[in-house]
Amino acid sequence: MTLLLVSHDMELMTIASTIHVLCFGEIIAGGAFDAVREDPRVREAYLGA
Predict the structure, then answer these.
(1) Strand partners of residue 20
(2) For the segment 26-42, what is each residue's pLDDT rounded down to a tens digit?
């Protein structure tokens, strides 16, 4: 079974086995939550870091 969940709540994303991060409609990262959370493109796009 596949479930598509769209959210900006990062705590909610911890329940997913695979996540994809979009920025202006383009996938900038994908994979396990821990790896995506540390991706520099994700950090820049969403955390300004």
Answers:
(1) 30
(2) 999 999 999 998 999 99
36: left (phi over 0), alpha (psi -120 to 50) or beta: alpha
- Residue 12's pLDDT band, with cuts at 50, 70 and 90, is confident
Compute CA distances 14 → 9, 24, 32, whole Å.
10, 22, 9
Q: Is 21 within 8 Å of 42 (Cβ atoms)? A: yes
Cα 18 to Cα 27: distance, rounded to the nearest angstrom: 13
- What is the sign, positive or negative, of the torsion defined by CA atoms of 7, 16, 18, 38? positive
| Domain layout of the chain by residue ranges | 12-47
